[in-house]
């Protein structure tokens, strides 16, 4: 007998005879009612067991976490909140779950505890919902670009290039650990480690992506990226997924249009296709908000917040204008936003970004034309000679969600910049070829996928929106 997904059973239009459901027990009440979940939906289906005709020893095996197969009829439910339930004729325990030992008991667990059990936390309602939303968002990313004719490119994970020039790379070695080449002081010489070549895990697929955009026109990457930054924050991971479109002949304005359209599309896709999961996550969030003081509670419920982003265009503000706004804002010593900027040229701290997005504009903001010396080497220098055509998209509650730019297409200007920053031209000879042969204006950006998932699910810690978070503290599993 083929089993039917619980999602399909719950969506039935009429009762059904002889169905089989398989899943994991969430709870078992009154020796009679099983709440069964199979991951296809946030909702459990209630299964009513004929407990009078079932041996006690079998009933005892129906415990939270056990895998069971149930055969019976789908009947209209007498209970509130559910249209159908399963009147079980028989059940089989596929896999026992020791009630004393199973960590995911039906009670509220701290997110901290759940992170330590990332392999089991997905069996909770919240993490099931988050991971389904994440999957739908991935699909929406591909759908958006594929429908527009972008070519999906897989850029290397092991690479010799530091795309961001920020020195935050994990080194990769092909040599046995006790046989690494050492210099005279006895320190490991990473220059010779990957089949005689120095390599690391990619921080971004952008540079390779650019070479493909200069042939295929519009491309995107969607893959894992790695940063060895030791920042222990709720917004940073050592391993995260990035989406990087790159488009030939697009200038910075086209780049902003693309980013805004793309983000609104994927958010809308999730709103339309994850209704039940988002409703559940919204409820969870409201519950959490209740424990906060009134002043710290979010003004909008989750779905309202997503709707807001869909119905408002992102505010476009130059870095210079943003600095003026920050300078004009009266510092409030008692409140959070007290570190306001006084100097043009400084990088924005997250406090500044939050002030602009959450207090000043109260909507997503695209900041552009940053000072050249706080941005990466590949960005297009403006005619003023001191700013570059960079753009960061800032989101409420998240901060930076996108970083991108129009790229420096002029060979001489790019080489001069690289020399100034001490970036090896020989190592990036292939990148410079794009400027040597048929160079053209082009632009792109990178969206941190987990930051998008954070925004859409309303979660507050990035470790809770990726299946197995890799942070300085956590690299098990
Ligand atoms: O701003 P970033 O460093 O830009 C780049 O890597 C460019 N090469 C992108 C491009 O133009 N093609 O990173 C892009 C985005 C950030 O805006 C942020 O959303 C995310 O990637 N990000 C991280 N997400 C999680 N953990 C980290 N450690 C992240 N670092 C960046
Ligand atoms: Mg950035």
UniProtKB/TrEMBL annotation:
Please state every residue range assigned to the domain named Aminoacyl-transfer RNA synthetases class-II family profile: 131-467
> GO: which molecular function terms?
asparagine-tRNA ligase activity; ATP binding; nucleic acid binding
Q: Where in the cell is it found?
A: Cytoplasm
The record's annotation in Gene3D superfamilies points to: Bira Bifunctional Protein, Domain 2, Nucleic acid-binding proteins
Query: What superkingdom does the record give?
Result: Bacteria
Q: Which UniProt keywords apply?
A: Aminoacyl-tRNA synthetase, ATP-binding, Cytoplasm, Ligase, Nucleotide-binding, Protein biosynthesis
List its EC numbers. 6.1.1.22
Cite a single GO BP annotation: asparaginyl-tRNA aminoacylation
Xref: SUPFAM superfamilies: Class II aaRS and biotin synthetases, Nucleic acid-binding proteins
Tell me the enzyme class: ligase
Quick one: a GO cellular component term?
A: cytoplasm
Catalysed reaction equations from the record: tRNA(Asn) + L-asparagine + ATP = L-asparaginyl-tRNA(Asn) + AMP + diphosphate + H(+)
Give one Pfam family.
tRNA-synt_2
On assembly, the entry states: Homodimer.
Family that this chain belongs to: Belongs to the class-II aminoacyl-tRNA synthetase family.
Report what the protein is called: Asparagine--tRNA ligase
Tell me the classification of the organism that encodes this protein.
Bacteria, Pseudomonadati, Bacteroidota, Flavobacteriia, Flavobacteriales
What is this protein's gene name? Answer: asnS
């Amino acid at each position: 007998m083929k089993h039917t997904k619980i999602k399909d059973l719950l969506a039935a239009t009429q009762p059904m005879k002889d169905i089989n459901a398989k899943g994991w027990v969430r709870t078992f009440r009154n020796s009679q009612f099983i709440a069964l979940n199979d991951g296809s939906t946030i909702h459990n289906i209630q299964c009513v067991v004929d407990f009078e005709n079932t041996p006690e020893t079998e009933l005892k095996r129906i415990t939270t976490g056990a895998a069971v197969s149930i055969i019976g009829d789908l009947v209209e439910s007498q209970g509130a909140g559910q249209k159908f339930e399963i009147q079980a004729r028989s059940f089989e325990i596929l896999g026992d779950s020791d009630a004393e030992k199973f960590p995911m008991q039906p009670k509220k667990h701290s997110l901290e505890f759940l992170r330590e059990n990332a392999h089991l936390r997905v069996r909770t309602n919240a993490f099931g919902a988050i991971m389904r939303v994440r999957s739908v968002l991935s699909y929406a990313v591909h759908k958006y670009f594929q429908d527009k004719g972008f070519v999906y490119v897989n850029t290397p994970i092991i690479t010799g290039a530091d795309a961001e020039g920020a020195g935050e790379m994990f080194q990769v070695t092909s040599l046995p650990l006790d046989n690494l080449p050492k210099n005279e002081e006895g320190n490991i010489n990473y220059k010779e480690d990957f089949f005689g070549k120095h390599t690391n895990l990619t921080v971004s697929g952008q540079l390779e992506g650019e070479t493909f955009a200069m042939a295929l026109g519009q491309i995107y990457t969607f893959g894992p990226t790695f940063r060895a930054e030791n920042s222990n924050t709720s917004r940073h991971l050592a391993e995260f997924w990035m989406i990087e479109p790159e488009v030939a002949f697009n200038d910075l304005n086209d780049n902003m249009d693309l980013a805004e359209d793309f983000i609104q599309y994927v958010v809308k896709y999730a709103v339309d296709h994850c209704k039940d999961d988002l409703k559940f996550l919204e409820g969870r969030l409201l519950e959490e908000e209740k424990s906060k003081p009134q002043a710290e509670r979010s003004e909008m419920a989750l779905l309202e917040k997503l709707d807001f982003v869909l119905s408002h265009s992102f505010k476009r503000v130059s870095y210079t204008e943003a600095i003026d706004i920050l300078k004009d804002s009266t510092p409030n010593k008692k409140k959070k936003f007290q570190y306001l900027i006084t100097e043009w040229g400084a990088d924005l701290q997250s406090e500044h970004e939050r002030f602009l997005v959450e207090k000043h504009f109260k909507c997503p903001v695209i900041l552009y034309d940053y000072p050249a010396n706080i941005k990466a080497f590949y960005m297009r220098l403006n005619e003023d000679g001191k700013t570059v055509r960079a753009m960061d998209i800032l989101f409420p509650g998240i901060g930076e969600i996108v970083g991108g730019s129009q790229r420096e297409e002029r060979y001489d200007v790019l080489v001069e910049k690289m020399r100034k920053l001490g970036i090896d031209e020989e190592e990036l000879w292939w990148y410079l070829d794009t400027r040597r042969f048929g160079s053209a204006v082009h632009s792109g950006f990178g969206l941190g996928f987990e930051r998008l998932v954070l925004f859409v699910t309303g979660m507050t810690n990035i470790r809770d929106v990726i299946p197995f978070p890799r942070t300085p503290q956590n690299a098990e599993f």
